[in-house]
Amino acid sequence: MKASQKIRVMVVEDHILVRLGLLTVSEIEPDITIVAQIEDGESAIPAYRQHRPDVLIVDLRLPGMDGIETLETLRKEFGDITALVLSSFSSDADISRAVQASASGYLLKDMPVMRLVEAIRAVHAGQEYFPPEIANRIAEQMRQLKTNLTPRERIVLGMIAEGRSNKEIGSALGIVEGTVKVHVTNLMHKLKALDRTQAVMIAMKRGLLDLN
């Protein structure tokens, strides 16, 4: 396989033993190459800018800027990126943060190496990769969130996805713009979104929107 066809991977991980383990992936798999290994989130930004990897593997808990903050910072500059979150932890809070940051996958550090290889290939192909034990917990979180959203909030969410302004939403629903702002604020809080665009992305990822 030609070098130009290889999946270029950048690793952001502060534990050297984990980095060395990940480096073996590029030695045993001819279609994967590690283009950079970074120890902290702050350094990951200029490194990503330099290497523009196909896939980013980022530790959830890093010194200083953590993995989620690193992802959010990178997305602000580069837009949609393909990222796998790597963690020693599998709490609902950690998984939720990764999903909200639009990670393409979530893997635990004690996984077999071949699972990581499968994950890299899957997300590079545009798929998501969440092992069954993680996927089941994400599904439960989605069910809970659907229950938490009121019918009116779901309608407003759909209109936001259509690109309507608060004024347009208020006019369509027969409510004042101030009331729309309250619904939008509640949506942002429940989805843990920073802005309207991220709210729509999170909602689509969680199956809360039907745009057909």
Throw out a few tags for this protein.
212 residues, alpha/beta, Rossmann fold, Arc Repressor Mutant, subunit A, five-stranded parallel β-sheet, 10 helices, 5 strands, 56% helix, 13% strand
Q: What would your notes on this structure say?
A:
The longest helix has 17 residues, at 132-148. This protein folds into two domains: 3-133, Rossmann fold; 149-205, Arc Repressor Mutant, subunit A, CATH 1.10.10.10. The protein contains ten helices and five strands; from the N terminus they run βαβαβαβαβαααααα. Helix 7 crosses helix 10. Helix 1 links the parallel strand 1 (7-12) and strand 2 (32-38). The mean pLDDT is 85. It is of the alpha/beta class and 212 residues long. It is elongated and about 60 Å long. The protein has a five-stranded parallel sheet, with helices on both faces.
Q: SSE string, helix = H, strand = E?
A: EHEHEHEHEHHHHHH
Roughly what fraction of the amino acids lie in strands?
5-15%
Spatially, the strands of the biggest sheet line up as 2-1-3-4-5
Number of strands: 5
Q: Can you tell me the overall shape?
A: elongated
CATH class of the largest domain: Alpha Beta
Structural class: alpha/beta
Number of domains: 2
The CATH superfamily label of the largest domain reads Response regulator
> Could you tell me how far the N terminus lies from the C terminus, measured between alpha carbons in angstroms?
40 Å
Number of helices: 10
Spans of at least 5 consecutive residues whose pLDDT stays below 50 are none
**C-alpha Rg, in Å?**
19 Å
Helix content: 55-70%
The CATH architecture of the largest domain is: 3-Layer(aba) Sandwich
CATH fold annotation of the largest domain? Rossmann fold
Report the average pLDDT across residues. Answer: 85
For the sheet with most strands, the description reads: 5 strands, parallel
